[in-house]
Amino acid sequence: MILAIDQGTSSTKTLIFDAAGQVVCRASVPLTTHYFGEGFVEQDPEAIYQNVLSSVEECLSRFVASGGALDQITVAGISNQRETFVVWNSAGEPLHNAIVWQCKRSIGICERLKTNGLAQVVQEKTGLFIDPYFSGTKLIWLYENVDTVREAIDSETAFFGTVDSWLLYKLTNGQNYQTDYTNASRTLFFNLKTLTWDAELLSAFGLTGLNLPEPRPSSANFGESDFNGLLPAPIHIGSMIGDSHAAAFGEGCFAPGTAKATLGTGCSILMNIGPALTESTHGMVTTICWSTEDRVDYALEGVIVTCGATIEWLKNTLGLFAENRETEAMATAVPDNDGVYIIPAFSGLGAPHWQMERTASISGLTFGTTKNHLVRAALESIPYQIKDVMMAMEQDTGVPLAELMVNGGITANGFVLQFLADLLGKAVVNQGMPDVSAQGAAYLAGLQTGIYPDLAFLESINAIRTTVKPSPDQVTAHAGYAGWQKAINA
Length: 490
Description:
- By secondary structure, the protein is of the alpha+beta class.
- The chain is built from 16 helices and 24 strands.
- It has a seven-stranded mixed beta sheet, sandwiched between helices.
- 53% of the residues are buried.
């Protein structure tokens, strides 16, 4: 059995997979996020760790209650929210709250770095843009604004890590300080060509005294843990990988040209581009897709900052509905959006626009606008943003999209999937696996330990999928997209 942990922004999910790749048990525990100030977003590092332990404990309890034996579990895999990071001292104590990927506090620092001429060298080395979305500039903000962080970095006693590194450090009692290539590639510190931390960039950022975890392939030996005594004996940790990359692996993006979109709080669209780097000229980032000890696959990625978060805003802040499942019927209750558009730039606009200073807006309101129009506009903003990204990827690669594999909570909304298929004019494939990031982490851990023999075996157990094909009438979708383009460029 494989223990798979998916530590996400809003919860930690824990699943147990068997040797046939099937889920035998799952549990989920919510995680609190703190939003304040002008775009500040934080989480308590200790709460993240305890959230993981609570989720694992609940999953193990259910497993035992169903007749499972804990000694059947021989390896663990971890996927995690990307870009969110922690800084801690040599005693393993956090020096500040974790800064979440959604946080915008470093917009001014990004502008300064661009003015200083660093944009090109950063993109050439890391594949990324200088943007608040990625970890590095927010660490610079901490260095410049929090005395304890600055003093620790200057005295070389500060340890930096994305969530995977923080969890590994805690789970192994400080014995293992490592990360994987995918998480490292989201920091602005990692050189994609050498697969090492880049000393030149760290110097340019003023962070030369920072301790950084050892980067390793996603499928590798990351030490052992008994998960704070929840297991009778320590087990091998066989994979660590960023959640969007884990989803790509879980979806079966094993060959160049295969692509997936994770429809969650935000949206990450990854297209596997194989073993060679390709630099985007249309607003995409280059990143690591996934890696094993004998193979590294790169990817182009379009990062959409806000997708499901728009729906949560309509529910929790505006109170337009009680449950997300109501939105599909509300959207189909009106024949079209009637010219109403929501530009969901609550935390700026990501790919391919990269306007992180932009704020959200609603246009096209009249006295005839109902809450159904607003809900439909919010749901449509998800396929519209994906269409923007896919057009840019096709321009970068010259390879037309064959089909798009999707996962995440929003895939339960039939309106979104059909609208997306109509807009792309291509099949949208849904594996129907709600926890595909955990699945990817489990697959990689299983490969590392030999539970799963090879990629061909993983492809064979991934065969059951649901396909949403474009409808005969795609006029509404394309007319709506023309209006979206006007609204986004207004």
